[in-house]
Fold Amidophosphoribosyltransferase.
Amino acid sequence: MCGIIGIILADSQGTVAHELFDGTMFLQHRGQDAAGIVTCGNKGRLYQCKGNGMARDVFTQQRMSGLIGHYGIAHLRYPTAGSSANSEAQPFYVNSPYGISLSHNGNLVNGKYLRDYLDKSVHRHINTDSDSELLLNIFAAELDKYHKARVNNDDLFNALKGVFRECRGAYACVGMLAGYGLIGFRDPNGIRPLVIGERLKSDGSKDYMLASESVVLKAHNFNTFRDILPGEAVIIPKNTHKPVFKQIIPKITYTPDIFEYVYFARPDSVLDGISVYHSRLNMGSKLADSILKHFNNDISQIDVVIPVPDTSRHSALACAVALNLPYREGFVKNRYIGRTFIMPDQKERRSSVRRKLNAMESEFNNKNVLLVDDSIVRGTTSKEIVQMAREAGATKVYFASCAPAIRHNHIYGIDLADTKALVAYNRTENDVSKEIAADKVIYQDLNDLIDCCSTDSIKDFEVGVFTGDYITGIEQDYLKELEESRAQNQKLKELGLGNSTVNSDSVKSEVDIGLYNSGDYAH
Ligand SMILES: O=P(O)(O)OC[C@H]1O[C@H](OP(=O)(O)OP(=O)(O)O)[C@H](O)[C@@H]1O
Ligand SMILES: NC(=O)CC[C@H](N)C(=O)O
Ligand SMILES: [Mg+2]
């Protein structure tokens, strides 16, 4: 899913890097693989610090001290295209034209076409397998068409029109044109989120921030904010320091990815006017209805509702209240282990569940427990958790999911390339119960989930992961190629070649050209 941030301060002598760094702390849950910041100094020079790792490890004090300038962008990466090579850490940069850097959240689904177009028609060199590098180069190629020494807002908006025309898929982006200012834009279906806010200063001037989630804005006192709309762009030039909004192309749909509400986003964010927290409470209450149905309205055989920390906590509580059953925190979460689902490989994910969650016997011993999680995806967590509940003495273990069964790829920003890895793939509910060794598995109904998130203005969501119908459609063979490339990356990683220098084109190397994309230059 990735997290993106852009900030421009009113004070042109100010330093933005600290706030960008602080902002990444609020979006770490969106990407744990790589982090990056690029700032722009007064002479229009860009300063960069990026590489693989969590934000706190990449942004050391020493590296941060070199990030000069009052505007800049940041990125937290959860790889969903290409590989997890250092060279694919974002923001990406191209020096021509004008010096552009870009942070992208989402996935393009017509990468093959874009790669071909960039190569054969506009002759731009692409150095990695990242779709974000393609997007940036499309933008650069569009801007190049004006053959101008200096561009203006209209040129930028027109170039974005070209981006919207060429790029298919999900993209919420913040970009920066060296010496010019900040840019933000969102795909015409509004699949991935992007919020803009302002912070009024005592002298009447304003700072501006763009971010994936409202929680970052609130935390930094950017109190007036709104969502960038599908197909809309904003430019905040450093000279005028006034945001200029433009609907670049008419919105096609307004269909945010429902998985933001199920799992991705922080509960204290409001995205597209929908409170993530409230949607999760709704999911818990609605799930109670399905549970009652499954038990023919007799839940006397359930003693206690227990959440699977972290994400399902609020839903599980609402579910327990609706069922009039006790709620207990039977699993203690180790706060030093990050999200397991977005870890890059399965072995790591599996062992992390046990390191992350520990069962308290007193809450399980001789009890029939109803475990509630936000979703069951590969089943890594649920399998382990059910077993832990039994080891802790549970008599019966029922497992309920706030999301419906996941049987399809998520193509807009979740690393779920291989459908066969999904525990519900080609399996019924009963099969899934057997697979995770639960006594019963209960899923939320899709229409109920949609109801939980709907508002007066947004009633449709991107739900392809549940239905296999994707809002943008996909390029022929896209899924097959995605599966193949992700499988190959996985194999290389298992062989320990993911970051090596072995002489093979398919190996992602630390020594991919480092001119603009190395993470280590700042040591
Ligand atoms: O079926 P799986 O493949 O295991 O995926 C689903 C699980 O992964 C996520 O937890 P995660 O540990 O990533 O994050 P959380 O702490 O926010 O719940 C999610 O909340 C589910 O618990
Ligand atoms: N999860 C995301 O948004 C990833 C962005 C981009 N597709 C990448 O893999 O770097
Ligand atoms: Mg979880």
Notes: DSSP finds 17 helices and 21 strands in the chain. Residues 499-511, 513-523 have pLDDT under 50 and may be disordered. Residues 5 and 427 are 40 Å apart (CA to CA). Residues 308, 311, 373, 381 surround magnesium ion (ligand 3) (CB under 6 Å).
